Amino acid sequence: MEDKTLRILEYDKIINMLSKCAVSNKGKNMCLELKPSNNIHEVIDNLLETKEAFEVVLRWGSLPLEGIRDVEDTVRRCRMGFVLTPRELLNVCDLLRCARNLKSFMKEGSKKESYPIIYDIIESLFVIKNLEDSIENAIAGENEIHDRASQKLFTIRKSIRDKNLRIREKLQSMVQTYSKYLQDPIVTIRGDRFVIPVKAEHKGSVPGLVHDQSSSGSTLFIEPIAVVEMNNEIKELMLKEKAEIERILSELSQKVLQHVDEIEHDNENIAYLDFLMAKSKFGLDLNCTIPDVNDRGYINIKSARHPLIDKEKVVPIDIRLGDTFKALIITGPNTGGKTVTLKTAGLLTLMAMSGLAIPARDGSQISVFKNIFADIGDEQSIEQSLSTFSSHMTNIVEIIKNVDDKSLVLVDELGAGTDPVEGAALAMSILERFYEAGSRIIATTHYSEIKVFAMEREGFENASVEFDVETLRPTYRLLIGIPGKSNAFEISERLGLESAVIDKARSYVSKDTVKFEDVIQSLQSKTLLLQRELDDAQRIKKEALELKKELSEKKYKIDSQRENMIRRAQEEARQIVRQAKLETDSMIKEINDIRMKAQEAASIKEAEDIRKRLKQKLDDMDTSEEIVDEREGMVAAEDVKIGDEVFVTTLSQKGEVISLPDSKGEVSVQIGIMKISVPLNKLLKVLNKKKESKKTGTTNLISQKVYSVASSIDLRGQTLDEALYNLDKYLDDAFLAGLESVRIIHGKGTGVLREGIKSELKKHRYVKNIRIGDISEGGSGVTVVELKR
C-alpha cells in the first residue's frame, strides 16, 4: 500500500487513536506499526482475532493485563551478561505474574471453546513461579533490596543499625560535653560519616577530623576522634552490604538468563494480547462492527461513518460498489460531503484490511484490494490554477501506470482546474481507462457531461449528495442511482439575488440542460419519498417479526409447561404404583414365611388363599401401561348452572360456577378465594363418577383423591382446635392426591388462627416449605404450602 494513500486518507490518525487504547509500550508499538494487508486469508484471520477480543471485552471487560511491562531491553541486556537492576528484575516479575494470572483466568469456565484463538495464545505462555517468587522475595522496590534477601545481608544490616545507634549515643553525650563550642546541639552526617557542627573559632577545642564547612565558614563539621574508628567500621560494613547486594542481583540475573527464551516468548505474546484488547476497545469506542470480506472488489458498507468526525454529528451513509456497477460517479454542490464519502470508503477499507472493526452497521462487506490509489485535493480551494491541475495530473499519470483489476481508485474533482469542456472530456477518458483496467472507481465531479457519460455507459452509476434548498444546507446523505443537481439558481435566489438576473442566467442555459436538471430534481424527490416509505415499511415489518417471535416463544413456553405437568403427573402415578407393588411383595413374602412355618394344613391353605387374593389385587392395580387422564369423567360445559363444579382448562384448576354466562359467553367461577371470568368453551363440566364395584384398594383411593381434593381449604371462622384437625386431614388427602402445593385460607383477623396454623405447618410431616401468599393469592390471609414428594 502506498504511503501517499495512507497519508491522504489519514490512516495515521486512526493508528494513533488505536495506540492510545494499549497498556504496554510494546503493545502501543504494535499498534503504530499496523499496516493494511492485501492477503485475504491474513485479513480474515486478523478480523477473527478482533471479533474474539470484542467478545472478551463485552463479557469480561478485558483480560487481566494489569502491571504488564515491556522487558525487551532487559532480555537483551541479560543475554549480553549485564547484571540487572532491581527495577528490571521487578519488571520481569510483573511480566511473569501477568502470565500466571492470564493462564488462571483462561482456565475458568469453557473459555477454550468460546475463544480458541486467544486461548491458544495464553496456553502457550510460560509460568515460572520459582523465579517470580525469588525476585519478589529479594526486591523490595525499584532501588531497594529486602533485608531477608539473604541471611548475610540481614546480618550486615543489623550490624550497621547497631553501630549507628552506638555512634549516635556517643555523639549525643559529646554534644552535651562540648555544647558551648557547638553551633547547634545536633548530630548530622557528612559523606556517610557522623559529625557535629563546631564553631570555627573553637576548632581546636574539639579534637577530630574536619569533613565540611558551612557556606559562611562560621561552622565546621567535625568527626570527633572518639568515633572515627566506629565510623570506619560502618564504612566497611556498607562496602560489604554493597558487595552482597551485587551478589544477590547477579544471582537473580543468572536465574533470569536461564529462562530468557521463555520470558521473551511471554513478553511478545502478552504484548500481542494487549494489542488485541486495544483493537477491541478502539472498535467499541466507535460503535464498530466486524465486516465480511471478499476479494471480488465488492463493497457494501451500511450506515458508514467517518471515524475522525464526531460520532454525535456524523451522518451515516450507504456505499455500494462492484456488484452491478464498478464505477460510482458522485456529483453535488460544494461542502455537500462528496470528499468525505471518498475518504470514508477508502479509510474503512484500509481499516478492515488492517484487521480493525469499522464504524458501520452489521452485515457490511469490504473487499481486499492489492492497491488503493487516491487523488484527493482540497475541494474548498477558491483558486484553481494550472499548477494545481498539473499536480493532479501527475498523480493520475502514476495511478494509470500501476492500476489493475485488484485496485480501488478514489479521485476527487477529476478534470477540475482547466477549461470545463476539455476537463470534462479528459475526465471521461481517464475514467474509461481505469474501467478498462478492471479497477473499482469512486470519483467526484461537477461536470454535467460526466453525469450523462455515467448514465450511458454500462458499469457506471451516478450518485449524489443530497442538498436541502429550503435551508441551504447539505444533508450529507448519499443517494446512489441519481445524479446531483448544482442548485446554483435556487441557492442564489434564496440568498437574495434579483429575479431578473436569475431569469437572464436561465436564458443562457440550453433547454436540454434545463430539462435534464429538472429530471434530476424530479428523480431526487421521488427517490426520497420512496426511501421514506421503504424505511417505514421495513420498520413495520421488523416490529411485526419481533411480535411474531415473541408470541411464538410464549406459545412454546406454555406448551412446554403443559407437557411437563402431564409428564410429572404420569411419573407420580407410576411411582405410586411401584410403591404399592413393593408393599404388596413384602406382604406376600411374609405370608410365604408364615406358610413355611405353619404346621397345620388348614393354616397353609388359608395363607395360600390370602396370597392369591393379594396377587389378584396387585394385577388389578397395575396401571403402568395406562395413566388416567386428568380430565376423565368430564364433558364440555355447553350449559352450566350456578353451583356446578367445573374444570378450568387454562388454569388446570377446579372451581364452582357462581354466575350464568353473560353477553360475551363468560361465566364467573370461584377458585378458592379467587373469582375469575372464564369463556364457556374453556370449561369442562365435572360429572358424578359411577362407583366401580370391581376396583378397590390403593389405585382407586388415589384416583378418588386426585379428583376430589381441592387446591385450597378455607378455615376461616373455625376455632383453632377445629382448624388444626381439618388442616391435618386435608394435608393427608392433598399429599395422597399428589398435589405439589396448596393454599390454606385463614384470613387476617387477630392473627391467632394464622399463627397457630403456621406453627402446625412448620412441624407437619408432609410440609416441605411455607410462605405468605402474594397479592393475587390472597396476601397475608393465605399461607401457601409446598408439599414433599
Automatic annotation (TrEMBL):
**GO BP annotations listed:** mismatch repair; negative regulation of DNA recombination; rescue of stalled ribosome
List, in alphabetical order, the Gene Ontology terms for molecular function in this entry.
ATP binding; ATP hydrolysis activity; ATP-dependent DNA damage sensor activity; endonuclease activity; mismatched DNA binding; ribosomal large subunit binding; rRNA binding
Give the InterPro entries listed for this entry: DNA_mismatch_repair_MutS_C, DNA_mismatch_repair_MutS_core, DNA_mismatch_repair_MutS_sf, MSSS, MutS, MutS2, P-loop_NTPase, Smr_dom
UniProt-listed Enzyme Commission number(s):
3.1.-.-, 3.6.4.-
Q: Which residues bind ATP?
A: G332, P333, N334, T335, G336, G337, K338, T339
Q: Does the keyword ATP-binding apply?
A: yes
Task: Tell me which residues make up the Smr domain.
Answer: 713-788
Q: Which domain of life is it from?
A: Bacteria
Q: Which residues cross the membrane?
A: none
Q: Per its UniProt record, what PROSITE patterns does this chain match?
A: DNA_MISMATCH_REPAIR_2, SMR
Key words of the record: ATP-binding, Coiled coil, DNA-binding, Endonuclease, Hydrolase, Nuclease, Nucleotide-binding, RNA-binding, rRNA-binding
Q: SUPFAM superfamilies in the record, alphabetically?
A: DNA repair protein MutS, domain III, P-loop containing nucleoside triphosphate hydrolases, SMR domain-like
Q: Which residues form a coiled coil?
A: 520-564, 597-624
Protein's UniProt keywords contain Heme: no
Q: Which EC class heads this enzyme's classification?
A: hydrolase
The family assignment reads:
Belongs to the DNA mismatch repair MutS family. MutS2 subfamily.
Oligomer status and interactors: Homodimer. Binds to stalled ribosomes, contacting rRNA.
Chain's role:
Endonuclease that is involved in the suppression of homologous recombination and thus may have a key role in the control of bacterial genetic diversity.
HAMAP family reported for this sequence: MutS2
Q: List the protein's name.
A: Endonuclease MutS2
Write down the species: Caloramator quimbayensis
The gene that this protein is the product of is mutS2
